[in-house]
Task: inverse folding
């Protein structure tokens, strides 16, 4: 199946070919033109997020255990890959898979069997390692973001300093991990959300979601020209290429 190429890009591609017919003999070699930008296929849909539930601690989470009357026992811990933490007097304790309150109850029970009298403690989660989303592509600040409150795709992009001028806001790719393994993906048209026409594509995010904002057709053509024409052909300074 032939790739779908925007009309303006096809017209520009033809003008580039015409330019190459003149320029290639000057260069003495034939450059590899590659393939013009193509649209993304829209064949998959991510599963909707479920209602928020009590947070379960995960490996990599940064937690703090604070004792009310024995501050010398206070501990800052990062849950190990095996899901455990190591504490004074009671040694290894399973933390991953428990809520903070369940871990607190488990620690109180174990410390009651030690020399401490009436231990009182609290478990505080300082950093949620697993509750993150990842944004890449044509945004101001790509990278990981914490997902601590209900957040939509557009909100996350705005937190990443918004779309660049080269962004294709009508074909934003969302990748989501399935509960049983594997991934689903969906292409979202956020231009309608930005204009207020429809917010159907501005869906809530789940932990470990990946958002990718591709380049616009014009930006792709500019990149194509730079990589395959300007850097290959001996075009003289001051000679302008056809506009897109």
Result:
């Amino acid at each position: 199946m032939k790739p779908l190429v925007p009309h303006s890009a096809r017209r520009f591609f033809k003008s580039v070919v015409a330019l190459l017919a003149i320029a290639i003999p000057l260069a003495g070699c034939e450059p590899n033109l590659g393939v013009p930008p193509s649209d993304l296929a829209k064949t998959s849909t991510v599963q909707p997020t479920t209602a928020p539930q009590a947070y379960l601690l995960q490996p990599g989470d940064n937690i703090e255990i604070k004792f009310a009357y024995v501050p010398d026992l206070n501990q800052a811990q990062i849950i190990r890959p095996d899901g455990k933490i190591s504490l004074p007097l009671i040694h290894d304790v399973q933390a991953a898979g428990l809520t903070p309150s369940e871990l607190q109850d488990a620690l109180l029970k174990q410390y009651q069997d030690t020399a401490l009298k009436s231990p009182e403690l609290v478990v505080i989660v300082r950093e949620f390692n697993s509750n993150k989303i990842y944004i890449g592509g044509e945004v101001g600040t790509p990278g990981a973001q914490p997902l601590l409150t209900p957040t939509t795709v557009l909100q996350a992009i705005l937190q990443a300093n918004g779309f660049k001028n080269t962004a294709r806001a009508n074909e934003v790719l969302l990748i989501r991990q399935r509960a049983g393994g594997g991934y689903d993906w969906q292409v979202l048209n956020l231009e309608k959300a930005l204009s207020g026409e429809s917010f159907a594509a501005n869906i809530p995010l789940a932990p470990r979601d990946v958002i990718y904002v591709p380049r616009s057709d014009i930006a792709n053509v500019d990149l194509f020209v730079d990589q395959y024409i300007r850097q290959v052909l001996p075009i003289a300074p001051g000679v302008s290429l056809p506009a897109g």
